[in-house]
Amino acid sequence: MIAMSKDTTLTIRLNKNVKSKAAKVASGMGLDLSTAVNMFLVEISKTNKLPFTPTGPEFPDIWNDNPQDIADFNKSIGLTDDGRNYGKENTN
Question: Sign (positive/negative) of CA torsion 51, 49, 9, 17?
């Protein structure tokens, strides 16, 4: 296993119930939330995509990599992104 230096901090706000439930799931796998979040971020940085498909009424079905669908969704929420850079977002 490659050791990675940890030289930055991420602070996030989230729903208390989500945090509690996620901590229980992570704990059941022998992980703390910090390790679980690190694993998530490493995975998306390696693959340049989410390791799952968001579902539910709050997530429209735009996760099919169709730039026009993404552009239409972005326009509907007031963003000017045309969707052509999907998957090529700046990771800095």
Answer: negative
